[in-house]
Amino acid sequence: MTAKAILTDTTLCIGCELCVEACRREYKLGEDKPRPWKMRIDDLSATRYTTIVRRPGSRFVRLQCRHCRQPACVSVCLVGAMQKTPEGPVIYDPNRCIGCRYCMMACPYGIPRYDWDKPVPFVRKCTLCYARLGQGREPACVEACPTKATIFGARDDLVAEAHRRIRETPGKYIDKVVGETEIGGTSVIYISDIPLDFLAWRPGLDRTPLPDLTWVALSKVPPMVLGVGGVMAGLWWIIDRRVKLAEHKEPEHKEPEHKEPEKKT
């Protein structure tokens, strides 16, 4: 199956946030509210799956899940709540989620958010409108963009289009398709006239897919769980045995105390 992707050209983005509103309508998201854990009112949240980051010089950059081709969030999810689909999107199944939030810690772009307002909170993030793709439709954000700063299509075609724009307009863009190869590549790619290192947890991410690194730690989880469980079971058996032995132990025979006869006066 042909993997799909989004190409965002930041030079065409006017910061209108129609993509944000389209996403809000599509998923019936609530209104943005100030929260202590949000850095800004327009930061990603359980009510904002995509947002516009404003940069100096009237530059606007749309922020959303990057839908990594080899996603770290999927690799660390112990119960398969995060899943990578053949079509490209990384989707989330709340029925499997145990709330460990490992996906939030593993994401190199800091995308997943937690629905802290709910009694039973879930992880929230962009799904690239996976249900719409199954209907042959574009993501809601792409459909709403008035300047075509965001376009949708086959990933290989969009990578080729990105390189064509860079090649045919020398000096307009930085000579880099962001997301083409970093950490194995992403399904949301960018071309821009400003550096986009701020979109990741650190600048200069190399090509190494993060699951290659997370597996080093996760592969130790089963042995550690079994090892700690074995030690705890052993300690319980020893303590329980000592308690039972103490309960069944007969009291020691004691000699009657010698009392001196009372003196008559």
Query: What's the rounded overall pLDDT mean?
Result: 85
| Secondary-structure content class | alpha+beta
* Straight-line distance between termini: 115 Å
N-to-C order of helices and strands: EHEEHEEHEEHHEHEHH
Q: Please tally the β strands and state the result.
A: 9
What fraction of the residues are assigned to beta strands by DSSP? 5-15%
Using only C-alpha atoms, the radius of gyration works out to 29 Å
Q: How much helix, percentage-wise, in residues? A: 25-40%
Main sheet: strand order: 8-1-9
General shape: elongated
Number of H- or I-type helical stretches: 8
Low-confidence stretches: none
Biggest sheet features: 3 strands, mixed
Question: How would you sum up this structure, described in words?
Answer:
This protein has 265 residues and is of the alpha+beta class. It contains eight helices and nine strands. The mean pLDDT is 85.
